[in-house]
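Sequence design from tokenized structure. All designs in this work follow the same two-part layout: the structure record, then the generated sequence. An example of the structure record is given first.
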């Protein structure tokens, strides 16, 4: 079996535009719709939406690789990077801080040409706390770079990248391709999802780093799409991929065997379309939270506001399991009697709804106001 980089037509990717026309049209239509909604929002709500999406991307791009970070740490890193905190908030995890910084960096510099130095700096951000791997440089080990699945003793090679001695040459060609296909480039690819799909596959096929290739590859896809759209993205690509990782890896594996990338481009464009649709849901959630606080904020004391904010989550993943007296006590450090009284009050004014009874009593936020 030969991989795409071993074939004589590498890296000259081809695709059937007729096969992807419908999904590209749907993406353009959805993007226009979401952009129209965003433009009508007050500036503070636009910012809330952007932060929510950046947090989702940072967390989900890491979860795809099996790494789980504190939402508070990621949020703090992103808000620090955007200058939204009056004083920078300490971030406990260096890796959470790094992925947050990467999200800010990709967004802030989307229009700049790609360079190997930019890719190395991204890798340094991601791998700041890593040991025993080469950080901020192309891989140089002599062992084959393989993507392996399966349990110990039953490993199965899904893909093998070019040997390390070829990486520098391959990445020089990749950087030239990326910049040549950008808006105004001599080989411009005008359809954003197509360029993003090929850029991601091309980079992943080379797998130039010892670790972090998936996360940087998704950042490259985001940069490619943002350049073609002419603005930073308002979607979380990784959130959509993480929802069905098996399909993502299966599509990558199939695409790695040929340089006809029609099926891959169709799949990846569909992911972008779904991500854009989820952006609209995020905007709706931000608007619902805003209406809620406009109605109830003057009726709540500080501890009640603290609990309600906890229940709203981050606008991407809501507070799970409902609220109860025990959770309320843990969050606010008050007695059970005070927690019960506060929850009853919130229910009386319509801020929360009650389900169950007795020890199974649970409260959920009523955002339909």
């Amino acid at each position: 079996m030969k991989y795409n980089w071993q074939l004589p037509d590498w890296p000259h990717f081809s695709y059937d535009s007729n096969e992807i026309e419908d999904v590209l049209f749907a993406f353009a239509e959805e993007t226009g719709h979401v952009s129209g909604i965003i433009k009508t929002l007050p500036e503070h709500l636009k910012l809330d939406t952007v932060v929510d999406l950046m947090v989702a991307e940072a967390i989900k791009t890491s979860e795809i690789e099996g790494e789980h970070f504190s939402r508070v740490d990621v949020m703090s890193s992103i808000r620090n990077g955007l200058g939204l905190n009056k004083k920078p908030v300490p971030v406990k995890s260096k890796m959470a801080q790094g992925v947050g910084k990467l999200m800010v960096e990709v967004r802030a510099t989307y229009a700049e040409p790609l360079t190997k130095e930019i890719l190395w700096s991204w890798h340094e951000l991601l791998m700041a706390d890593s040991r025993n791997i080469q950080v901020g440089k192309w891989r140089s080990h002599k062992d084959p770079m393989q993507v392996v699945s399966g349990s110990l003793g039953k490993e199965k090679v899904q893909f093998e990248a070019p040997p390390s001695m070829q990486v520098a040459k391959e990445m020089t060609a990749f950087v030239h391709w990326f910049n040549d296909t950008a808006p105004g480039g001599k080989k411009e690819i005008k359809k954003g999802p197509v360029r993003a799909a090929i850029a991601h596959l091309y980079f992943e096929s080379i797998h130039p780093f010892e670790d972090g290739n998936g996360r940087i590859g998704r950042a490259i896809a985001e940069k490619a799409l943002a350049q073609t759209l002419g603005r930073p993205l308002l979607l979380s690509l990784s959130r959509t991929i993480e929802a069905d990782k098996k399909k993502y890896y299966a599509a990558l594996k199939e695409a790695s065997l040929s340089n006809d990338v029609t099926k891959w481009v169709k799949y990846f464009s569909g992911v972008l379309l779904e991500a854009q649709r989820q952006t609209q849901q995020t905007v709706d959630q931000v608007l619902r939270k805003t209406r809620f606080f406009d109605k109830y904020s003057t009726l709540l004391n500080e501890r009640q506001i603290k609990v309600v904010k906890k229940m709203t989550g981050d606008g991407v993943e809501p507070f799970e399991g409902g609220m109860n007296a025990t959770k309320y006590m843990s969050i606010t450090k008050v007695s059970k009697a005070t927690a019960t009284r506060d929850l009853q009050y919130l229910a009386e004014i319509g801020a929360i709804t009650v389900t169950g009874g007795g020890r199974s009593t649970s409260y959920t936020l009523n955002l339909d106001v």
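Residues 55 and 144 are 34 Å apart (CA to CA). We note this feature because it recurs in several other targets discussed in the main text.
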